[in-house]
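Posting here for the record, re: zinc ion.
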Amino acid sequence: MNPRKIAEIASYHAHIYFDGAEQRAIAMDLRERIAERFTVALGRVHDRLVGPHARSMYQVSFDVPSFATFVPWLMLNRRGLAILVHPNTGRELSDHIDQGLWLGEILPIVNQDMLRDETEAEEVREPNTAPTLLP
Ligand code: ZN
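Prediction output follows.
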């Protein structure tokens, strides 16, 4: 089997999970700090379970060059939150299940039938943050 090429990666997601009021407060604080420091697309906060995610979360969509600074910054600043970072290669199912990396606790990916392989690889969404601080 030929190794897959990193050129397949169109963008990345970080799913930032939280459980309970204390973790929610940390997650919202982290969200502000991300917006101050990174050019990313911050998704809505889902207090209810959505899609294949087993815990409340919000999504951060970011481009390939941002990985080198954003992911290490999350390593240093996640404050106990579970985070899934996965590539978007057009294989939604395996991108979430097999290709992701977890910071902290590994959570199940539920409702896997909602995820499809052979979709268009998701380009990073239009960034909606305007950083004012260095990471
Ligand atoms: Zn995702």
